Amino acid sequence: MEKNLENTQTVESEKQERVFTQAEVNGLVARESKSAVERLLKSVGIAPEGDYKASLEAFRQWRDSKNAKIEKITAQMQKLQQQNAVLSQQLEALKIGILMEKLDRYTRLAKAYRAEDSTFIDALERMIKGLASKWDALHGERKNAD
Fold it and tell me: Could you count the other beta carbons within 10 Å of the beta carbon of residue 41?
C-alpha cells in the first residue's frame, strides 16, 4: 500500500506543470529574440557574428547614395520635360507661321494668354488676334492693295 501511495505521488508530481521564474522567462525570451535577429540578418546577407552597427551604417550609406542618384535623375528628367514642352510649343508656333526671329517672344506672350482649359495653339492664336486688333486700333484699319 505504501508503494501504491508513492506511485500516486510520483504520477501527480509528473503531472504538475513546471513553474518558471521571471529570470528564466527573460532568458528564454532573450534567446528567442537573438535567434530571430540572427535568422533575419542571415536572410539579408549579414553574418550574425559581424558588427551590426557597421553593417547598418553601410546600408544607410548605400540607401542614401541611391536616393541621391534618384533625385539627380528626377531633376534631369524634369529639365528635359521642360525643354521638350518649350520645343513643342515653338514647333507649333512655326507651323502656324510665326517667324523664327520672333519665336521666343511670341511663345512667351502666348503663355500669358493661355487659360487652364485651352491648348498652347489656342492661346497663340488668341494672342495673335489680340495683337492684330491692337495694331489696327493704333494704326487704323489696314488697307488691302486690290
Answer: 16
DSSP state letter for 142: P
62-121 tens-digit pLDDT: 899 999 999 999 999 999 999 999 899 889 888 888 888 888 888 888 887 777 777 888
Taken in order 48, 49, 55, 56, is the CA torsion positive or negative? positive
User: Whole-angstrom distance between the N-terminal and C-terminal Cα of the chain?
Assistant: 142
Show the cell assigned to 112.
500669358
Specify whether the CB–CB gap between 42 and 48 falls below 8 A. Answer: yes
Read off the amino acid at residue 90.
Q
Beta-carbon contacts of 28 under 8 Å, excluding residues fewer than 6 positions away, are: 20
